[in-house]
Structure formats: structure tokens, C-alpha cells
Amino acid sequence: MIIDIHGHTNAPPSLYAYKSGLLSSRGAHGKGNPGVTEEAMANLVKNHLANNLDKVGTDIQFLSPRPFQLMHSEKPERIVHWFVEANNDAIATSVKLAPDRYRGVAGLPQCAGVPITNTFEEIDRCVNDLGFVGLMINPDPYEGDGTPAPGMGDEYWYPLYEKMCQLDVPALIHSASCKDPWDTYSNYFIAVETRCIISMVTSGVFDKFPNLKIIVAHGGGAVPYQVGRYRAFFVRQFGDTDGFDIQLKKFYFDTVLYNQEALELLFKIVGSDRCMFGTENPGTGTHKDAKTGRMLDDIKPTIDAIAEISEQDRKNVFEDVARKVFTRFKG
Amino acid sequence: MIIDIHGHTNAPPSLYAYKSGLLSSRGAHGKGNPGVTEEAMANLVKNHLANNLDKVGTDIQFLSPRPFQLMHSEKPERIVHWFVEANNDAIATSVKLAPDRYRGVAGLPQCAGVPITNTFEEIDRCVNDLGFVGLMINPDPYEGDGTPAPGMGDEYWYPLYEKMCQLDVPALIHSASCKDPWDTYSNYFIAVETRCIISMVTSGVFDKFPNLKIIVAHGGGAVPYQVGRYRAFFVRQFGDTDGFDIQLKKFYFDTVLYNQEALELLFKIVGSDRCMFGTENPGTGTHKDAKTGRMLDDIKPTIDAIAEISEQDRKNVFEDVARKVFTRFKG
Fold this sequence. Notes:
Chain A is an alpha/beta fold.
């Protein structure tokens, strides 16, 4: 079975019209209706299944909200909550329309500067009521506006980690938009995900929460490539020469890297038992690679082409690790 | 010949005592004296040559100021100028003491929020009077304080690029400190260098300055590993499937990566003709690797161990590319 743990929302234009209204009214018009009904989404889901799953041989895709849309840094808090809920509802509708092909990964209504416990009601709704199998965390709800967000190793996040362990749900680390006018959100993903790993490693958060399951999107940002720098940093901080690699292997990673050399590096540095197939399809990589004639986010053939890994490595990546980590996924 | 293009200042404690005084007085005590004399530095240089060059077989090292010390974000502007000048003087003293073993790469007295032309007097002094062979640019003189710095593709930087072309000097891109309390300066290097490449690629700055020579430190940040993401981004922006790689090969890269897998990836993605040996020795990587028993920044044996590259590739990395790019280096 091919499980793609990194896909995003199917949604009609009404979802984004809803967001547009919330941003303009700042909630003055009330909660409103994002229109993510089965009727509005039936064709979308049919086309998505045909073009983004069947065409590339994906059996099941885990859907989370499209991160760059999530507007965590906007105020007041209620418009962020309403929009995240609407995204999670759209995901629930997709799962309802194709229960054998999708599972939900909940967006969190994170707001800059407020306690993380404010997301718990939505976590409970998604996991307990809607049957979602995981969460998605944005390490920077300020979305690059220049305000430093607490590092992922900071106590700010502990109540969330405790809740994740209680519910036994993993979380995908994936930043959202970026308000720095000289950066791009896609580039910022990499910076924030890198920072997340380093903050968690240096704070020893996995000692406090040994059952915490964190999946770092986009192949772990810059960390697998820059691992030598972080090994050296770790020796300096903790005097332990193997320490960084031991810590790094407490994380999981997706395969949202669009070329073979990078995937080879990822598997060598962290091991296939920490990697899960992810494509972000459709998304950033949905463009044709002139060299192969395939879409860049058609990652399975790229992994299949890696000669150095075993059949068990491939099975780890395509299925086994996801089944082990997403314990609420039965299928 | 083994040329290490990425080394940093030798300096006695008096240089950093000088900085401490400038920060406390904010310049009220006048320019003062950093004490980077030949007498104060003779033993330092002797030990540095023995431990950091001879021991690892480096013939010549290019010295730039130690970036995380440079305090570009401090005010008033004159204390930044004075401290950068003192660093460049310390480098000039090293070169004078061991003219066969060192060359200077000038730190720029960059200040957040003022024109880049304010650095030109110091550039002229270093290149024309002191014989320095290159420059070092910090893409974020705000040092991560939350203020967005103009992207390296922005017109803000054009006068500097014009000057670099006139003088025919290359620049090492290397960020400095980071004031974000939840980040580290070392991590921020990677984020800023990545952002630099993307900003320059998307702005077409190499079309405007075809002779501009930019060396991105630390193996290009995250870009070689995340190249698939940037290829896709480029197709989306410009509709050109080979475009990103063509642009990427307009940059040069150093080898300040401390493990073999990452160096292999770098050479595969950008080619040995765009890479220069650099170690940052002594620096972040000056810690023993338990696996090899060598220091992590003893990078030459790591490159020698790569079976897939040719003798010419090795010669490119260790000598030829540096000679081609640093045209003011004769030796």
C-alpha cells in the first residue's frame, strides 16, 4: 500500500471567499458559511482522486489544511478559529466522500501570543468527533512578521505535547505563510522547520515526552544536509559526539523533496525507519520536470530509482512507518 | 596547492575588549585602540599556522572577520565602522606576519537602514591599500531583530555589485549574529544564505551584473538539498524547467559542510567548477568526530574519500576555482 502522509485540502472557491470575507469584516459579520458541502465538493474530490492519487499510484492520502492559507497571524482570534475549522470541515467532507482514499490531519487554530491550549477544543473535535489521525503544527504563528515565536522546545508548547501523547496522535511540523516581504512562504517553510528541529533537540523535549511523535515536513528543512554543522554544535553544547544523530532519529521526516540526490541523502542520514512517503501533491512540486517528463511531485518513481536502498527500506517509507506512527489509521 | 577560502580572524582578547568598550560607550570615548599589533599577534599567528593550517595540510587560508562578532545591527553607525576596521586591521596584520599563508577578505561596515555606499571607503582601504582579495557580505545587517532586510536581489545592493565588478573582487555571503532569542546565529547563517540565493535568482541580478562573483558560504545553506522545491518554484515563476539550475550555477559555493554525504550532494547539484575548498577552521566544526577521530572541519580527507569525483574535480575544489574567482590572489 502507498500511503502519502502529506497532502492538502480539496476545497471549492467558496472556502477562500469565506476567508476573504473574514479578513475584510474581521468577524463583524459573524461566523458565516464556507460552503464545503458534499454537493460542492463531489466533483473536486473525484478529480483529485483521478489526477493526484490514481495517476501516480497513491492508495491513500492524508489531508491537512493548505498551510500557506491558514492566516495564523491575523486578529481577532475568532476569525483564525473559524477559518481553520472550515478547512478541517472540508477535509472531513473529502474523507466522507472517499473513505478508503483519505484520512484527516487537523489544522490547529493557532494564534500568535495566546496559549496553545486555545487549540484544544478543535483538536478534540477533529480527533474524537471527525476521526482525524494526526495534527499539523505551525512553529511560527506570527508568520514571519518579525516577532520571535517561542522555539518548539519551549514550555509554551508543553500542554500540546502532553495532549498529543494522551491522544496518541502525531503532528506534522509545517509552517504557514510568511509576511517578510523579501522572503517567500515556501522558503520560510525550510527555515522554520530547521529551527524547530534544533530547538527541540537542544531543549531535550523528547526526554520529557518520550512518546511524542513529530514529523518534520519537506525532508527536515536544511538539517539532513547541514547535519555536520549540527553535530559540531551538539558536541560543543553537550560534549556528546553521537548525540545529535541520536536526537535526530527521534523525529520522523516526510519525503517532500523533489529530486533523487536529496532523497538519497535523507535516507542515509536518518534511516528509512524514520521516513514516510509524502508528496504535497498537488502543490509546489506540481510542475513538469523536463528531464523525466514526470511531475516533480511524482516522487514514488524517484524513490524506486534509488538503487542503494532495500525492499524493506521502500516498504518502510511507503507504508510501514506511517502505520506505526499514525496509530489511529486503520485501513 | 590547497587554498582554504573560508577562515576567520586571528585576534588577541584586546580586539573583543575593544568591542565591549564600544558597545558600552556607544562611541562616547572616541575611536580607541583595538591592539591588533604585530607584537600582540605574533604568537597567535604562529599557533594558528601550526594547528589550523599545517596540521591539516592547508597551504593558504583567506581570512575574513569572525561574522557572528560583527554587530552590524548596533548603533550608532560609527561603532560598527570602527569595529569592522579593527577586524580588517587584525587580518592585515596576520597577512603581514605570514604573507605566504594568508590573504585578506574584508568585512564590510554594514549598518542596518543606511545606504550600502557607506561601506565603500572601507572597501577601498582594504582592497587598494591593504591588498585584500575579496569581500564578505552580510545579507541581514538587522541580524534577525525582526526588521526585514532588503533581499539580495533588491536595488539596495546594486551600488555594491557595481563596485565589486569595477574592482573585480568576489564576495563571500555569510550572515552575522542573530538576535532572535529562539534561534542561533549558526542556524540563521543557513536561513539567510538560502534566502540570498532565492532573492538573487528571482530578481535576475546576474543579468544586470554578469561579472558579479558571489560565493555562498556553508555549501549554499539549504538550497542544494532543497533544489527540487526551488526548481518547481522557478518553473511556476518563469515557466522555465532548466532555469533554476542555470541560475544556481552562476553562484559559487564553499565546502563548509562537515560530512561526506552532504559534500557529495553539493558536487552533484552544482558541479565542482562552482565549488571552493573552505573549512571555517577554527570555528563551528572544530570538534572531534568520534567516528573518524578527526576534527569535523578537517574537510580535505572527507573530500578525498569521495570516490565519484575525478582528480580534476578535486583540483577545481582545492585550487583552480579559487584562483579563477579571486583574481587579485597571486601566489
